[in-house]
Amino acid sequence: MDMADFLPPITRSLSLSLSLSLSLSLHTEQRRRNRSRDDAMDRMRPNAANRSPLTPLGFLERTATVYGDCPSVVYHRTVYTWSQTLRRCLRLASSLCSLGISRGDVVSVLAPNVPAMYEMHFGVPMSGAVLNTINIRLDARTISVLLHHSGSKLVFVDPLSLPLLRDALRFLPHSHQPPRVVPIEDPDEENAKSSDLFAAGGGLTYEKLIEMGDPEFNWVRPKSEWDPMVLNYTSGTTSAPKGVVHCHRGLFIITVDSLIDWSVPKRPVYLWTLPMFHANGWSYPWGIAAAGGTNICLRRFDSATIYAALATHRVTHMCGAPVVLNMLANAPDSARKPLPGPVQILTAGAPPPAAVLHRAEALGFSISHGYGLTETAGLAVSCAWKGEWDRLPAAERARLKARQGVRTLAMAEIDVIDGSTGESVKRDGATLGEIVLRGGCVMLGYLKDEEATSRAVRQDGWFYTGDVGVMHADGYVEIKDRSKDVIISGGENLSSVEVESVLYGHPAVNEAAVVARPDEYWGETPCAFVSIKEGMAAPPTEAEVIAWCRERMPRYMVPKTVVFKPELPKTSTGKIQKYVLREMAKAMASPRPSRM
């Protein structure tokens, strides 16, 4: 019971009035203090000490200080330390500026994974220029389109790509000022004669530029972290290029994100099987610098070359498309060497078949799987592994690892949405939708193409990937196809990736790709292109492969046609060129109408 109940009524009234007055006064004072605090918080602004633009270029300076005498780049007999790499990159930036290259100019490079290619990922943007790495397997006409579209001021070219570049320059419009050509020396290549290179560059070569530059050059820092730093053209470019532009901020974020997500330790030994010209090697030129690691450069490789490099250099990390996993898993015994220790492989670029993952891990490789696009500068989704999955059977582990996974730390959100409603699809692992993303490493946009940019980055705040996928009940995303690769057979949406995954489980199949073949009755039917493993005494027939598939998938998904090829056409990054196979399938006569 309250003591106020024993007070006279008038006393209780006065007490209540005083209490209310005091409460009101305290409330007013509290509001005044809150306003004062809020005003103080509102006055907090970026200052000169905390608004330095984010850029991955600064990683090189720190690493040269911490790991200056440690090896940075290894290529045949050439070995550089991190302090040497910093000086070479500063010299390169200095010389580019002396040639008249200024902030925002595009500098292109046509080269494989050689030391100069690695150095340009720092040296070119350190001059204020925008780095444009070009796929060395493109044809001359396409390269000319890219040079014209980008307005490239200077092109560094590998000696073996010099004839290709010369042809490309001939296709440039007469009105276009051709870029300056600077050849890159390679003493380990017999066909790279120094006299020819000297003449091609008008007396200037890459090493000459390095020699001329200032090792103490005060490199050109971005005015804003949103300043463009790289320009990458999407794979499959033809006459309508899509030039993806990324800024310093986005590349800083994706680089740090990639190191955290893959748990890259200090001083890894990284083998360059992933081309640096493909989405800037998924940001790892800057990432390996940040970790103080060693870059093992390879101009070209096969399974024997990879196994030898793993053993010789005691490699700890490497990246590659699923085709590289397949190469390692199916390598002949004569090419294989014992692994020097745990070798971490990060794979992306296409959904890896579970059967390939299983075979590669059985050899001792530890595989991580992710998903990204040129437009995200690296991996935006990764199959984050759960400890309890280690207790599952090997086949089930491989099936789970084949999923793309969850967003990485740098991605704000990811979803799978219904294209007609814009709503999230059911989390049932079966309902198809388009994968959409938003986060700090999404591109600035497509160069000189506002229409394509607005189609990809829409007003609802999502970046639309064009990839078809499902969302599982546990929140993990799984790609089912590119939107253009979905096969519509008899009104059913059919995932070519699912059919390929089953085909890879066939003991005789080395590679598999499934595309749509026009059909008078069904509209489209699955057409499988496969290559057979070497040394097969009795390769399977088309009927045997089809019968094998019928035992393992619904009848409507079973390929109606199987075409055997010695090797499937691929891009330089190992992606199977489905558009080539689609044209081959279209060229086939439509099969006679039949029921499944």
UniProtKB/TrEMBL annotation:
- The keyword Ligase is assigned to this record: yes
Q: Which UniProt keywords apply?
A: Ligase
Give the reaction(s) catalysed: (E)-4-coumarate + ATP + CoA = (E)-4-coumaroyl-CoA + AMP + diphosphate
Looking at the record, the residues that make up the AMP-binding enzyme C-terminal domain are: 498-575
Region annotation Disordered: residue ranges? 29-55
Example GO BP:
phenylpropanoid metabolic process
Question: What InterPro entries would the database entry show?
Answer: AMP-bd_C, AMP-bd_C_sf, AMP-binding_CS, AMP-dep_synth/lig_dom, ANL_N_sf
Which Gene3D superfamilies would you find in this protein's record? Answer: 3.30.300.30, N-terminal domain of ligase-like
What ranges does the record list as Basic and acidic residues composition bias? 29-45
Query: MF terms per GO, please?
Result: 4-coumarate-CoA ligase activity; trans-cinnamate-CoA ligase activity
Task: Quote the EC number.
Answer: 6.2.1.12
Give start and end of each AMP-dependent synthetase/ligase domain: 60-447
Family classification: Belongs to the ATP-dependent AMP-binding enzyme family.
Q: Under which name does UniProt file this protein?
A: 4-coumarate--CoA ligase
Gene name as annotated: LOC103716989
